[in-house]
Amino acid sequence: MVGAIDIGSATVSGCVLEIQRAGMKVLQYETLPVEPEGKEEAIRSLIGRLNLAHVKQVVANLDQPVFVRNLEFPFSDLKKIEPLISYELDDQIPMDVEDLVITHGHTVSRDKTEVLVVAAAREGVAQQLQMLSACGVEVTKLVHPGNPAMFFSGPTDPCTVVIDLGARVTHMAALVRGTLRTLRSWTDGMESMVAALARYSSQEEHQVRDWLSLQGRITAPGQHEEGFEQVIRTEVERFFEEWRRFILSFQTRHQETVERVVLIGNGARLPGLATAAASFFGVPVQVGMVPGETLADPKKASVVALAHLGVSGEALNFRRGEFALGARDSLVKKKALAVSLGLSFFFTMMVGSSLFTLWRLEKEERDLLGLTGQLSSEVLGKQLFDPAAIKKQIKQKTSKTRANGSDQFLPRMSAWVLLSQISEKMPLNAALEGDAAPGSAPPAPVDPAVAPVDPSGVKPGEKPEVKPETREEAKTLDKGVGEDGKDKTIAKKEEPIAPVRVDIQKIHVRPGKVSIGGVVNNAQEVDEIIRGLRRIPCFQEIAPGAIKTVGTGEEEKREFSIEITMDCI
Length: 569
Known about the structure:
Number of domains: 3
CATH class of the largest domain: Alpha Beta
Radius of gyration: 60 Å
C-alpha cells in the first residue's frame, strides 16, 4: 500500500492506494478543511483517519517556497552535472547554496543536457519533516507540488501542460513524452474569484464560496445574465492569460508545441472551465480522472497522482542528503561501524601483541630450559630439564647430606672450583720454584741489588713474614696485660708452611669425598700438605693414609695418600 498527504492552502487531502498487477485501487480518500487551529492539527486528524502510520510508503508535497530553474549544459556526461548545479545556482538564487536542499531532473540529448533544478530552504524542509514526524508519520518522499503532473502524461502522449488549480496557489507543469521539463507556481487561485464575487455581491466570503461550489459555472455571454457570470468570466480569463504566458515561455525555450492541457485540483471542478480553456488555447483540455472511475474528480485525481509517486522512480524528492530516509540510522550505522572497526583494530593489536608475547615467552622458556640443563649438569652431575626430576634429585642430595651431618642442601662449588681451591692452598712446590735437584751444580750467586723479588714480597735470604690473613694462621690467641693494666688478647702466629717437593699423581673428586695421592721426599712434607689443605673451609676431616717408601739410594721417595671428608660437593 501507498499513502499520500496533499497539503494545500485551504484543504488537506490524503488517500491510500493498493497497487495491483491489473492496476491500482483507491482504498480510502479524505479531504479536510484547514481550520483556524492550523494545518498541523488537520494533518494529524487526516493521518489518524487514513491510518497512515501503518502504511509502508507515504508521499507528501512540500508546503514551502520553492525556486525552479532550467539549466542547460553542452555535454551529456551526467557525472559532470551534479557538481556544476550548485555553481550555476549561486548567481541565480537570492540565498546561499549551502542553505538549500537541491533536487533535479534531467533530459539528455545528443550534444546537450537540460536540467530542471528545484531548490528549497534547508530550514523549511527540516521543519516540515519534523512536523510530519510529530503528527505520527515518516514520509518516504517529499516532492514538489507540481511533480504529480507526471501521472497524467505518458511516453506516448503529446506535449502536455498540467495545471493544478488550487485555492491560493496554482502549479503549472509542462511535460514532453512523460518527462517533466519545467515547473511554475503562481500564487493565485480560486480564492481570488471568491474575493471578487464577495466584493460584487457584498456578501461574506464563506457564503460566496459555498454558492460557487454548488451553483457556480462559466457561461457564454448573454443578454439576461446576472453580474456573477461576468465576474467569474473575468477572473477565469485572467487565469487563462497567466497560463498562456507559461505555455509560451515553455514553447519558446524548449522548442516544443503544447498539444494538450490537463486540469486538476479543487478549482478544476468549476463547471465549464475545461470547455472555456479549450476554446481559449485551441487545444484539447481534459479534467484529471482516477483510472477506473467514471466520474471526474480532479482533486481526488491529483491526490492519487501524488500517491503514485511512491512507486515511481522519477520524482523531485527533497528527502536527500542529510534528509534522506534513514539518514539518521545510516549515521548511527557509520558510528557503529567506526566503533566496530576501532574495536577490531584494538583486538587485532591485542592478538598480535599476545602472539608476540607468547613467542617471546616460548623463547625465554627454551633459554631457561637450556640454562636449567646446564646448571643441573654442573650441580647434579647430569643434564635434566624436568622440574619434577630436578626436585627429586635435590631431595636425594639433601637426604644424603643430612645423613652425613651436613646442613648444606646443595653443593657449595663445582669440581672445577674445588680443584682450583686445592691448587691454591697446597704448599709451594719447591721443584717448580727453580730449586736444584740433588747432585746438580749450586745456583750462581745473586746480586741483592738486582735480585728478583718473590711475588709474596720476600727477598732471597730473608725469612718470609707470615701475615695473619687466614683463620688457621691467627686462630691461636693468648691473653696478656697491656700498658694500662687491662687484659688484652694477643694473637699467636702459626709457623709458615714450608715449600715441599711433591709430585701429585691422583686427585679423585666425588660427592663428599676427595682422594689425593702423590710422591714426596719425606714424611714431613706430607704434614705440610695437610696443613695447607686445612685452610679450605669446606674440608671437614683430612686423614692421611699409610706412607710407603719407593725407590732406593738417591732415588728414594715417599708415596702418600690423603682421604678428605668434605661438604663442598
